[in-house]
Amino acid sequence: MPHVREATLDDIPQLCDLLTILFTQEADFQPDSAKQSQGLRQIIEHPEVGRILVLHDGSTVIGMVNLLFTISTALGKRVAILEDMIVHPDWRGGGAGSTLLKEAIALAQASGCSRITLLSDRLNSSAIRFYQRHGFTLSDMVPLRLLFPE
């Protein structure tokens, strides 16, 4: 039975493998293990910025989710941004994603957050339905990005 725990630096190679799967599915991102490793390290080493939860079966990481913390001026409280939710395809459909998401929601609440916001690809209707089954609702807000050259 898989279990959820916080990620450690030793998990980074397996987390990069999962992010490669995720970013191959998403239209807006490209896998780059060096960049992903750098970002993961920054979050793991600075838990005040966010937390990464991993779903593991023994020593194998089979899923991950990333919570980043910020302050909402609209709510006047701490909130979380949920990113990088991925379960390895071999483990999908058996409740692994629900287990991971429920732990992320519990962590956000325990961390004093009053809201979780996430982005999903517009065309990924199965992901949208998954989040809606867990209480998330569609927002009228539209994400916009400004990318800076590297």
Question: What would the average pLDDT be, to the nearest integer?
Answer: 95
What low-confidence regions span 5 or more consecutive residues with pLDDT below 50?
none
Query: What order do the SSEs take from the amino end to the carboxyl end, as H and E?
Result: EHHEEEHEH
Shape type: globular
Number of helices in the DSSP assignment? 4
List the helices and strands and how they pair.
Elements: E1 3-6, H1 12-25, H2 33-45, E2 50-57, E3 60-72, E4 77-87, H3 96-110, E5 116-118, H4 125-133
Parallel strand pairs: 4-5
Antiparallel strand pairs: 1-2, 2-3, 3-4
Helix pairs in contact: 1-2
Organism: Brasilonema octagenarum UFV-OR1
Keywords: Acyltransferase, Transferase
Domain N-acetyltransferase: 2-150
